[in-house]
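question for whoever is on the cluster today: can someone run the full assembly for these? two chains, 925 residues total. i dont have access anymore since they changed the login thing
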Amino acid sequence: MTAPDEGQVVGRSLPKLENLEKVTGRAHYIADLSRPRMLHGAILGSAFAHARIKSVSIEAALAAPGVAAVITGADVGPGRMGAFIKDEGAIAQDKVRYLGEPVAAVAAETEAQARAACRLIDVVYEELPALTSPEAALAPDAPAIHEALQDYVKIFDSGSEGNLCSRSRFDEGDVDAAWADCDLIVEGTYTTQAQAHVAIEPCGALAEVDQAGRITLWSANQSVFRVQANVAEALSIPMSRLRCLTPQVGGGFGIKMEAHVQPIVVALAEKSGRPVKLILSREEDFEITRARHPFKIRIKTGAKKDGTLLARHCEVLVDCGAYADDSPGVLGYSLLMSRGPYRIPNVRAEGQLVYTNKLRFGAYRGFGNPQVTFAGEQQIDEIARRLDLDPFEMRRRNMVVAGEPWFLGGEVASCGLAECLDKVEQAAPPLPPAARGKRRGRGLAINAHISGLLGTGAIVRMLEDGSIVLNTGATDIGQGSDTVLAQICAEALKVPLDMVKVASPDTDGSPFNWGTTASRVTYTTGRAVIAASEEVARQIKEQAGAILECTVEDLELRSGGRVGIVGSDRELPFAAVSGRAHWAAGGPIVGHNTLVYDGKTMDPKRGSALGLPFPQIGVFSFIALLVDVEVDEASGQVEVLEAWSACDVGKAINPKLVEVQLEGAFVQGLGYALFEEMVWDGPRLANPSLMDYKIPTSLDAPFALHSILIEAPQPEGPFGAKGVGEIGINPVPAAIANAVAMALGRPLKDLPLSGERVLAALMESEG
Amino acid sequence: MSETVAFTIDLDGRRQIGLAEADATLLSLLRDGLEITGPKRGCNQGVCGACTVMIDGWPQRACLTLAAACEGKSVTTLEGYAEDPVMQRLARAFAEGGAVQCGFCTTGMLISARKLLEEEAKPDPDRIRQALSGNLCRCIGYRKIVEAVTAAAEGAET
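^ ran it for u. tokens below:
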């Protein structure tokens, strides 16, 4: 009788809500904000990677022109923050653990004055041996990086000891016994490098303290609620003293999920009694925030002659850097993903996360998945090669399908992987032959990634005129979640998109949202938006029923913001029902919903786990990626010619935004696979600038980058949607490596696949 | 404190007279002095291109340009193109074509694209990739930006 609910707003590639501001230069980011009497902050970084702080003299800095306040470790108290292990203060106290770690900060009238004053601070250090690799840090005589590790608060069974930050071990089946049944066993060691996020906007924050001592804190962030929690922990203040807000955010990819300079900026504002803004330089953004973990991966996989996978053992050694940050989660998640999207009955995945005297590593798009996938997917190709199986066939034979469990027993309720594989295979024409002096290869990789985790909520308010304000507390870092959530809300209420406006995240007024991370906002927050919208719809019908003198069951929402009696032309605009609610009876219409993702990571009947950081993790999206490369025989340079990426996202709420996620992630993965690498010269990061650390330009990225959207609906997902933020990057290094291996006739096991490495491999294979 | 110098520039079509520190960059003058937020400070080293503005008709890095060196020159930021039909087409094509994500590179990208369309009415994708190779984007993967520039160029006919 009526048109289907879906399709008016959801499923359409509508432009993002804030695009007009962004294409006119009017969008404001943290560096664009200012407050009356605002000071500018600067940080003094440690001159040593590992040292005791004997003294800090600030007198000269305090006397310098324009200086209003100087803070050191003595100003911030004993508080410690950390998502998994609370090991990090706002500013170094007693000792420093990586080069550049903040030891003091200055607030002055200008940034130049603040930076000049930092240079006048005299710090006396007693140097300790710098531990720059997990192996060195695990040596029996290595000095402890965190002497008080045992006393730190930990939110899971981390097994921390010495310089071991955490360890995890997951088991399913009997891997030790299974090797005997395998016809082929392949083993290899793979290494991956540190990658910098390089959000084009550097990290920064602005804090202001009011007369009552309440603090307003704006910052570049991926979660105003994580900002609030981290600052409260680091400065030992009640969370309720902090109001955290966000301007536009210039990209994240994980770097802005946990704290960066926010605790320091709040401490400076408190000490000076004036608003303080601090924006990191690009060099500081490289040196003192966080980066993707280097992994060392030993992996062994066994199969039957027909390609059936029987067993896998994956062992990882992960460099944590100086502070735990999100690293225990990355370790645990990488192990959970190390089986890949395959039905392998016997699996053991175990790993160690080790403190070193380097920049902390932390959340970065993919969260450990790209690293283990680089190893695992090359091994799948190796098995296929040795068993003379087609790489597609090898994967089809072993891939999970809906209804089969994930490693450890988590539920896979929807799975479009088979279709993803079919689509990329059909889309790609035969690989054209290479010109003289070039070699070509084609590589395949498949992958899965979760969307889920933790708490979220939505408040949908109908204003007096019937228009809608959606408030979720989810920070849109540019990926388009404001637009997608507004589309979901508009669809649920059958109103045009411009009737829904999105409130900016505000810890005072928004419902809790853990953050823009774990590919989770569309899936988890979208569910809350639907539930809150349904509550609004119920209240609309109650109001309309009273006016139209009918029952709620007789009423339906009609497109354009009206409610009417089914089968009749009697109807009311939302303004009429909202007016009655505001002024006569019932009270203003507000829908509210909160939820916490509660699907279990592990079924104890299937698997066992030691040190599981995420007991309730998420639902699964899937991807198949096919890449064509050309290798220059003279230079070893690898060029990506074309790529086909098919991703099961459940439902594309906004198809174009999904495509951009896949394309952007592909190019970020291309840089990671081929040339991006943070290089340490001893304990010093040698390339903390965009001149020395290259990210892909428009010339590095192939124009022939094809995104194919597959929709295997997740039953409880909003209109069936699952996440897409991270999955696009996960298979990229693996697929490129498989393509290069085909071109070279031998695999490469270390990232990045630089010209130098590829050339060496070429010469070896010909030598 | 470095000495200050007087400057006169033609900024976004209006004559701007003022004082700047002798070592102040054009980016500092625009952002910190004049509160023009279009040019962004992404690296302050001339690499990322987020601060790109037009100086005497050429896209330049405001972070590498001394404010004092712009004496007597014409400086146009994205704000100065508000009424420009080519920029309006580009802006619309970016906004509607999925070529805007975080937006931090967008303003500089638009300036570079504007120059390209001035030089070449219908550039092909490779020419566009070349022309935008000095503007780093970490979100989009460039394809949709190239498509948006193509769409803006094609829109010129109608």
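summary bc i know u wont read the tokens: DSSP finds five helices and five strands in chain B. The CA atoms of residues 125 and 146 of chain B lie 6 Å apart.
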